[in-house]
Design goal:
This protein is mainly alpha-helical and 194 residues long. Helix content is 87%, strand content 0%. The chain has seven helices and no strands. The protein has helices spanning 2-37, 41-51, 57-81, 87-105, 111-139, 142-174, 178-193. The longest helix has 36 residues, at 2-37. It starts with a helix and ends with a helix. The relative contact order is 0.20.
């Protein structure tokens, strides 16, 4: 009788473990895909910003460079910092703050404010990957990680697809501001879900 109860309990634990692993993979893959929409917004609003006389090509280059520098610094430092925080919290916080920054970018027409916001966005974008990799490491054995990492890498394409098709259509229909605001609002919901 005790052996039967132990076997049933073990089967239940195994089923829960499998469900949690699926949830982790969905959260980090879709979450990282959606945070990409908050990184690539500038790519789809460049023409409307130039055509509207809001920013010059040089201004947009400075804003784009700020993201790159912020992302490089964020990825370097956040890799160390993420070891000391719960990956789920660190990951969802990166999505949430990046989303809020994008909403502010939708209202910014000042060069230095946009540079500062986009650099901060880069920093918080750099929080997501380390926590996703830690999640893969925590939930999957050494011989499973390559396959899981490959699945997670699809998130880049998911994010690019959403940005360059869905968000670009929104910008074409409603203006450049929604190229930042729409991903921001979307990613607030994604951060809560993650």
């Amino acid at each position: 009788m005790a052996a039967a109860n132990a076997g049933a309990m073990s089967a239940d634990i195994n089923a829960q473990f499998r469900r949690h692993r699926i949830r982790v993979m969905l959260a980090i893959t879709l979450g990282y895909g959606f945070i990409y929409t908050c990184r690539l917004g500038l790519s789809i609003v460049k023409s409307p910003l130039i055509d509207g006389g809001i920013f010059t090509v040089e201004d947009l280059g400075a804003i784009g460079a700020a993201l790159s520098y912020g992302y490089a610094a964020g990825k370097f430092f956040n890799g160390f910092i993420s070891d000391h925080f719960r990956p789920r919290l660190f990951f969802s916080l990166s999505i949430l703050i990046s989303a809020i920054i994008n909403i502010f970018m939708g209202f910014s027409t000042f060069l230095w404010l946009s540079i500062a916001l986009w650099a901060l966005n880069g920093w918080f974008q750099g929080m997501a990957a380390p926590s996703a990799v830690i999640s893969i490491t925590n939930w999957f054995s050494l011989h499973e990680r390559g396959r899981r990492y490959g699945l997670w890498s699809a998130s880049h394409s998911i994010g690019e697809g959403i940005t360059f098709y869905v968000m670009a259509a929104i910008v074409a229909a409603y203006g450049w501001q929604l190229g930042f605001i729409a991903p921001g609002i979307l990613c607030i919901g994604v951060a809560a879900w993650v």
